[in-house]
Amino acid sequence: MGVLIRVAKPDDIEPLIETLGSAHHVFFRSRFPLQIVGLGQILMAFRDERPVGAVFISWDLADEPEIREHLAEVPMVFHLHVAVEHRHQGIGRGLLRRAEELLRERGHDRVLLGVDKSNEMARAFYLWLGYTQPAEPELSDLGATAEPGELAHSVGETYDILVADLRRVPPRWE
Ligand SMILES: CC(C)(COP(=O)(O)OP(=O)(O)OC[C@H]1O[C@@H](n2cnc3c(N)ncnc32)[C@H](O)[C@@H]1OP(=O)(O)O)[C@@H](O)C(=O)NCCC(=O)NCCS
């Protein structure tokens, strides 16, 4: 598919504004300092040297007390996003696959993410790739807080936590 996926470098962040738009650019720019201090990593997908997608992985302490209680030390995937005109070509899957590889290399055996109640497409995508909803009711219907560039978790929307075993065999990564 001619797509390169790698960890973001400082000069990669500004071009995100052209392909993903300003809100997503703000999100990833605000996470870059966390990468510098070693609390997470931004992974980016490039086609013809232009960024076409990105995701942030974090092994920092979760903001949500519910996650700290039930899924302590499980790393998190945030803001998986592919530019509209590059979707349905395996780039989202490629970013998630690389994110999971990096987390396995760091010694983790599970990963979690939040998906908005209304985002049926993303939920179906994650369930298809083997993510499941944990049994604890506290991990469903979490209230969103406003964050820089955090469009998906708009205030008023609620989200559910999904978890995956990093040693599972997903249905079709390629
Ligand atoms: C979710 C998102 C990242 C997926 O990116 P993508 O590059 O289009 O994803 P891929 O091409 O790797 O995978 C999509 C494919 O997965 C497969 N797939 C997804 N759900 C499936 C299901 N339930 N059953 C079978 N196949 C499924 C299909 O082959 C699908 O291809 P299709 O859309 O052509 O049918 C992208 O749609 C996006 O950026 N959405 C907006 C942001 C967002 O909602 N992010 C999630 C935040 S939680």
Question: Can you tag this structure with a few keywords?
Answer:
174 residues, alpha+beta, Aminopeptidase, seven-stranded mixed beta sheet, 7 strands, globular, binds coenzyme A
Describe the structure.
The protein has five helices and seven strands. By secondary structure, the chain is an alpha+beta fold. A seven-stranded mixed β-sheet has the order 1-2-3-4-5-7-6. The longest helix has 15 residues, at 22-36. It is globular, with a radius of gyration of 15 Å. The protein binds coenzyme A. Coenzyme A is lined by residues 80-82, 87-93, 115, 119, 121-122, 124-125, 128, 152.
Instruction: Give the spatial strand order of the biggest sheet.
Output: 1-2-3-4-5-7-6
CATH class reads: Alpha Beta
How many discrete structural domains? 1
Bound molecules: coenzyme A
Order of helices and strands: EHHEEHEHEHEE
